[in-house]
Amino acid sequence: MKKRIVTGDRPTGRLHLGHLVGTLQNRVRLQDEYDCFFIIADLQVLTDHIERYSDIEANIFEVMCDYLGVGLKPENCFFVQSQIPELCELTMYFSFLVSLARVQRNPTVKNEAEMYGVSQMSLGFVGYPVSQAADILAFKAHLVPVGQDQLPHIEQTREVVRTFNHIFKKEVFELPEALVGEIPVLSGTSGEQKMSKSLDNQIDLAHTGEETFVRIGKMVTDAKRAYRKDPGHPEECFAFRYWSIFGPDVAPQVSVECKNATRGCKECKAQLAEQLNKVLHEIRERRAQYAAQPELVWDILATGTKRARQVAQQTLIEVREAMRLSFPHLTKAMRKMSGV
Length: 340
Ligand code: TRP
Description:
7% strand, 15 helices, 5 strands, mainly alpha
């Protein structure tokens, strides 16, 4: 039997290059080797976007197009978090296994609260890593390919596994492993800060060639190079980082030309945009094909959500039994009443 992958994203908009190198490439590479469950975590949008989300359903569709566009096969199990009530149930059970002090220490949660200026965190917000543990464990994941910012949540998940198995004296769950991509943090077009939609420094997978050109054109390059005739410092240039990631074959040549000032930043960025457009071409074509067939995309998601729910229901039976929350007498009496 194949081992399982569980991973996913919040539907707050389109996915970008940071997602691609941070985790999507891993998912594409591993999709045949593993039985994959991809969660679109709409409930998690309620953590820091509760008053400002645009249309979640439209964003679910965008994320699905990105997934299928990067080459995740439609046969994988794609599903929507809020449509699996068992995940909420499992979150509730897990919430008794984690102390308040423990969730309050989570560095990713703290960063997010700061980034979005949330001063009074809701219970759901501080507790979402526990809900994420439920997402992962309801499907008994072995591997969780994610971006680096998610590592504290995987650690939290592993703690839940240990505590659960220990308290209820049954090995219901196994310890999942995290897997981070080769480029754990990709800087955005604004320079040092990581690529993120809320900073508007991102290149979306779905941007057009022209939009990519404009965004890369504004990119911060080498702060030490004041004039075109000055030699550049590729090792300190943000655009050059992109060359080494997205054009590793040409990067050495770019570096030489930059250092001896035969290449200016403006032309360099124009070429970089072209290179990115080349790298993203196939993804964008495939994405557009799916985006043009919404019914197909929703069907893929419906099929996955149905299958995911069955798997989660199975796990919950085991969980309730381990926790002594299965009541055969009551169940029997209720069956009799409803006539089944
Ligand atoms: N927290 C993830 C993000 O912000 C989304 C997510 C929800 C997730 N549940 C998950 C990721 C389970 C991996 C596994 O993108």
